[in-house]
Amino acid sequence: MVLGLLIVLSGFLLSILSLGFASGVGARMGMTLAGIAVSLFGIVGVLNPAYNKNAIWKK
Amino acid sequence: MRQQTRILTLLMGALLSGAMVWAQAAAPPAAPPAAAPPAAAAPATPAAVPITDLDLKGVEAPKAEARAKGDPDGALTGTVSDIAVGDAKKGLTIGDVVNQVGQNKIAINFVWTLIAAFMVMFMQAGFAIVETGLCRAKNANHTMMMNFMVYGTGMLAYWLIGFTLQMGGVGAVGNLGGSPVLNSEFAVTLFGKTFGLWGQNGYLLMHNGTYDVTVMVIFLFQMVFMDTTLTIVTGSAAERWKFSAFLASSFVMGAFIYPLFANWAWGGGWLANLGGNFGLGKGYVDFAGSGVVHSVGGLSALAMAIIVGPRIGKFDRNGKPFAMPGHDITLVLTGCFILAFGWFGFNPGSTLGASGNGNLRIGSVAVNTMLAGMGGGFTAMFYMWFRYGKPDASMSGNGLLAGLVAITSPCGFVNPVASVVIGLIAGILVCVSVEFFERVMKIDDPVGAISVHGVNGLFGVICVGLFSDGKSNYGGSWNGVSGSVTGLFYGDAGQLVAQLIGVSTLIGFVFVFSFVFYLLIDVTIGQRSKAEDELAGLDIPEMGALAYPEFEIKTSAMRAGSGD
């Protein structure tokens, strides 16, 4: 769960970093889209499956 | 001599006429209004004659005898006698008239904003009956109570803390009189630029001069928006959310989660300044809150739904979902109508005025709003009809809401065709999204709040960066950057980047922030009700009373009569 949250947060940080480390619109857009993808992966691929491991419907 | 003079006059007249004809023929075609300053395009006008205080003396007030007969056609009501005179000795002056004009403008904007806020407040009733109708009858009291108490809980948190964090550093709002008292923003420096993080003025609406008429209007308007956000979460966690945990979670959301992002977008924070600081369009733009209100609510709803888990019986042991139909589709669709009505306060009201600064665009904003709602309702209905054989009522309602959510950000910047396109896409998006969350992620969202508000809210934020046509002009700038908001399809890719950074902030920060808060409450209070309470229905265990006691008595009597 903690790993999932960290991955989601890191996607946001990647987008913020695009403001400082990229100057062109294209590069910033690329980094921001990558950040969104990382955050979505953190929710869909890591955090939610961690919760579903002990889901009530599995008991 | 007289004849010579006549000939000379005729010649001069002919020369002047010829010159005028030549000038008209030689003049370039009239430039489009947007391309030329109004003064250059306007025809020559006679020199202005200054009005003096003396001229005002000639303006007569209706005579007392005439007023005594009544005023059936309204011609005697609202005249010079209604203008407040500053100095009785001087009588009516130009200064008095000008002050009255200024006050009239602000009065129009106050009334407009307040009425819009009252309409948004009434959306709470719409949310309450939509959610209750989509839940089972045994949880109706509990669901209604959550929607009822979220209003007061959120308001208390926002009055105590949230408003200051959100708006305490917004600065002067010109449409509402330009009061400068909300002027303190906590900021850090990053990449050499100032990043505003939260406001610091306005605690209890008394702190540092904030006992102010303008601040009161801003508070009321922003408060009802915040409450809309909070009520989204009650939908995704319905039928298994412990009431005490709901109260604590709602307080935290009204005090911290919502105000923080709202400050960044609307309170002069760092997202709003992406344009000024980094040249990204006009900065993050969110006209009425697809992101600030709906995505924050929807993503918090997702966090809560993950933490609280699905209802008992929603999935079998293999994870196959079962439908758990709501108990009253009449309530659901009536609630959708109430919400659609309230949205006319939500979106057009977000101009914060009807007079001045391009605010006459309120008509366009209102039309865009209704068109997108129509589009969403249609595509959701047809999607369900084609896919499942029937035009599902609840998803048609959710489609309408999805269209409204998606247009909430771009409504002030797009044209009617784009609004319909946005609505049509939103209607499909909500249906696909509901299936995704239920079948792939195994997340139980009884009312579809995550899909309607979260997913379509994010979509709406992106639409600003795509469809904004650059025709709007709210006082010549937005977020302090000159020009009109213009999306990628009209030539400004930077605006889309600003919107995507907003999306990333919502998913990557707001989701995590709310998740951590809700998790802390889960550890201390416990978010989920007991299994036996959930199976019995939360009305009696949590609220102590059924929503429909006669319904229960009738059912018992029927059982007794049938010998069960």
Number of helices of chain B: 19
- What is the first-to-last residue Cα distance of chain B? 125 Å
Largest sheet of chain A: none
Strand/helix succession of chain B: HHHHHHEEHHHHHHHHHEEHHHH
Which percent band covers the strand fraction of chain B? under 5%
What portion of residues of chain A is helical?
A: over 70%
Any key phrases for this structure?
heterodimer, A: mainly alpha, 0% strand, B: 564 residues, mainly alpha, two-stranded antiparallel ribbon, two-stranded antiparallel sheet, 4 strands, globular
Structure description:
With 59 residues, chain A is an all-alpha fold. Chain A has two helices and no strands. In chain A, α1 runs antiparallel to α2 (25-52). The two termini of chain A are 20 Å apart. The mean pLDDT of chain A is 95. Chain B has helices at residues 2-26, 38-41, 53-57, 64-68, 94-134, 140-167, 213-236, 243-266, 274-278, 290-308, 329-346, 362-388, 393-408, 416-440, 449-467, 493-524, 531-536, 539-543, 549-561, and strands at 185-190, 193-199, 477-478, 481-482. In chain B, α5 (94-134) packs antiparallel against α6 (140-167), α10 runs antiparallel to α15 and α15 (449-467) packs antiparallel against α16 (493-524). The radius of gyration of chain B is 29 Å and the shape is globular. Chain A binds chain B through residues 5, 8-16, 18-20, 25-26, 28-29, 32-33, 35-36, 38-40, 43-44, 47-48, 51-52, 55-58, and chain B through 190-191, 193, 274, 278, 280, 302, 306-307, 309-310, 312, 314-317, 319, 440-443, 493-494, 496-497, 500-501, 503-505, 507-509, 511-512, 515-516.
